[in-house]
TrEMBL record:
It comes from the Eukaryota. NCBIfam families: SP (TIGR00879). GO terms for cellular component: membrane. This is Major facilitator superfamily (MFS) profile domain-containing protein. It comes from Eucalyptus globulus (Tasmanian blue gum). It is a multi-pass membrane protein.
Length: 503
């Protein structure tokens, strides 16, 4: 594949080589694992065969006459089936942050695929709830390792002018995984009584793909140089850039590595004032990403559509439709993020998602009562609103929630800082997954107004507090972004003063 030369605004050259593209796509299969699990969980928990075996009380409530529409699936253990994965992912991402730094990005991704593969096998063969939860915890370990390593890997090998689009390949494959899971659920719902086993076992496929594919990719030059493998780092840099003329970039990575060695340690360095802007922005964007309400849609789309009166097949088919829109809209992000920038996409989508959430809330408040079925026309309108919401998320807060934290940290705090991003994402995902069905039962349509309030806050944050990082080399973020931001620059004042007097 020929290299495409691009000269950025900073005057630096950047090439998108076949090696970079292939490595990015293979690494992004970590996103396929994550997405498949997100999509498969909601569909499986709406299958009668699954409920009869593991959650018989929920099955009874689901089919009981006059049962409250908003409370059909309200069960803490059912929510724990979905959310337990994210508790394990928090712990795993902390461990993975050390593994990434000490061993490398590539072995961390390989470990992720092994955890996920074993978890999928245990879930597919589960005989009781305990076995099911153990499988989920292993899947969580895979998600934690994969989500820690993959965005860092892609950000470090990508040229600055293509970093956004390539990193969004991770989010793209998350959306593809969700879509594939929804299609599989639609088919396996007809395979009685073990269709759910096929759905859960299918998670092994992306895990195997990542494990085999990762054997063919190179480690990032930054990771190799950081671990003292200078010659290997130089060879890897020449390979991914497709040229021997890499002296400038090599020296920049070497300088960043030397600066990182002088630091007191990744986590301790995060406590310095100059690390707070990245830590705050990289962490809070994960809170915002989850409190858009997206995982309410992705986890529980079939459950949500059944609540509105759709039959089981129709609800799964509706989830497939939203999955298709999710994938298509992510392509928009790939082709616009390095042209339009990060902030434009975030602000536009906040407005779009706010309209969708508020309109959904109003529609359900008026037309979906405790025991009725929502009129068919309004039910289809809600499906449209869900799709409109998903489209906005998919070209903005979804992919950029992973991209921005992976590109804003200097090398000395990159792995530790990204752990806080991944850990916060998993924590918020756990909270949403664990409480949503209870929220739906108690707050009813007001649930959507709850998420709308969060969207207002995050839109304001993106407008006033988040700097633009488009086209900036990853090791020049402090000088060219943070030190020039109207608010965050004050955190670097002491550091600059010390440099002036020779400290």
């Amino acid at each position: 594949m020929p290299a495409m030369a691009v000269v950025g605004a900073d005057g630096g050259g950047g090439k998108l080589t076949g090696q970079v593209l292939i490595c990015s796509i293979i690494a992004a299969f970590g996103g396929l694992m994550f997405g498949y699990d997100i999509g498969i969980s909601g569909g499986v928990t709406s299958m009668d065969d699954f409920l009869i075996k593991f959650f018989p009380s929920v099955y009874v409530k689901k089919h009981r006459a006059k049962q409250n529409n908003y409370c059909k699936f309200n069960d803490q253990y059912l929510q724990l089936f979905t959310s337990s994965l994210y508790l394990a992912a928090i712990v795993a991402s902390l461990i993975a942050s050390f593994v990434c730094k000490k061993v490398g990005r590539k072995p961390t991704m390989q470990a992720a695929s092994v955890f996920f593969l074993v978890g999928a096998i245990i879930n597919a063969s589960a005989r009781d709830l305990a076995m099911l939860i153990i499988g989920r915890l292993l899947l969580g370990a895979g998600v934690g390792f994969g989500n820690q390593a993959v965005p860092l890997f892609i950000s470090e090998i990508a040229p600055a002018n293509y970093r956004g689009g390539l990193n969004i390949c991770f989010q793209l494959l998350i959306t593809v995984g969700i879509l594939i899971a929804n299609i599989i659920n639609y088919g396996t719902s007809r395979l009685h009584p073990n269709g759910w086993r096929v759905s859960l076992g299918g998670a092994a496929v992306p895990a195997i793909a990542l494990l085999i594919g990762s054997l063919t990719i190179v480690e990032t030059p930054t990771s190799l140089i950081e671990r003292g493998k200078l010659d290997e780092g130089l060879r890897a840099l020449k390979r991914i850039r497709g040229t021997d003329s890499v002296d400038t970039e090599y020296e920049e990575i070497l300088h960043a590595t030397e600066m990182a060695k002088k630091a007191e340690g990744s986590f301790r360095s995060l406590a310095k004032p100059s690390s707070r802007p990245q830590l705050i922005c990289g962490t809070i964007i994960q809170i915002f990403q989850q409190f858009t309400g997206i995982n309410v849609i992705m986890f529980y789309a079939p459950v949500l559509f059944q609540t509105m009166g759709f039959g089981s097949d129709a609800s799964l088919l509706s989830a497939v439709v939203t999955g298709l829109i999710n994938v298509a809209s992510t392509f928009i992000a790939i082709f616009t993020v390095d042209r339009c920038g990060r902030k434009v996409l975030l602000i536009e989508a906040a407005i779009q998602m706010l309209v969708a959430q508020c309109t959904m809330g109003i529609t359900l408040a008026i037309h979906l009562k405790s025991t009725n079925e929502i009129p068919n026309g309004y039910a289809l309108f809600v499906v449209f609103l869900v799709s409109f919401f998903v489209a906005g998320f998919a070209w903005s807060w979804g992919p950029l929630g992973w991209l921005i934290p992976s590109e804003i940290y200097p090398l000395e705090t990159r792995s530790a800082g990204f752990f806080f991003a991944v850990g916060m994402n998993m924590l918020c995902t756990f909270i949403i997954a664990q409480v949503f069905l209870t929220m739906l039962c108690t707050m009813r349509s007001a649930t959507f107004f709850f998420f709308s309030a969060w969207i207002v806050v995050m839109g304001c944050f993106a407008t006033f507090m988040l700097p633009e990082t488009k086209g900036i080399p990853i090791d020049e973020m402090n000088e060219r972004v943070w030190k020039k931001h109207w608010f965050w620059k004050k955190y670097f004042k002491d550091e600059d003063d010390n440099q002036k007097v020779g400290f």
